[in-house]
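lol ok so funny story. i was supposed to be doing the assay writeup but got distracted and ended up predicting the structure for this chain instead. priorities right. anyway since i did it might as well share w the group, maybe its usefull for someone
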Amino acid sequence: MRDTSFWLLALGAWLTAGSAIAQPQPPNPAASSPRPPALTGNVSFGLGLTSGNSDTTNFNGGYEFKYTPSPRNVVKSSGLFLFGETAGVRSNEQWGLNVRDEFTPDSRVFLYGEFRYLHDRFKGIDYLMSPTAGVGYKILDDSRVTLFVSGGVGGAWEQDTASRFRRSGAVTADQKLTVRVTRTTSIGQSLYALWNVTDVRDELYVLRANVTAALAGRMQLKLEVVDTYKTKLPPTSQNNDVALIASVVYRF
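and the output, tada:
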């Protein structure tokens, strides 16, 4: 009788364990939640026209995108185009772009390779190309505030309107801050610096600050100030240029 009771208890325990194993497990919320889109970004466009005592035309266009092929790898790119005419005479012509590939070995430090291009007619720069590589650090990185700094080394190839082609080693540094003030409004600020190794008097600084507010759906309104300063220029050019840009942004 005792043996029979033992085997009945063992059979009951085996059947209970088997039913528990066979029962479907609840889905893991982390595994079932969709991954964020690999490609995000925006395009912007602005146009200003005046007529009367003076006829002016001002146009600006730009883009930003971020591609995330893996959690540790991010590819970023941005570009800005500025064009202006006053009474039929060109008064502004500047465009630039940059592409950066970042690899993040941990939550704070990242390594990157970057390429930047700049054309500025009224600074006498036909083109300035600068490929660099370096390391950066994320000081703040959450849903409301992001702040990073980075520095790198590489080269600079510059063709000026009034002088011959120049090439040199280059040292770069940059910083970027983004603050989400409300659910529909954010502010941003960035600073980029390039120092020519061969000629230490040749420096480039680009300071940008912006405010972005939601309009409707994916549309936003963006106000931005871009301050470009270069130390070594032709005698007829001014070292500092400031552009105030208003544009409509479409996010994707």
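The chain has one domain: 31-251. The CA atoms of residues 1 and 71 lie 63 Å apart.
back to the writeup now i swear
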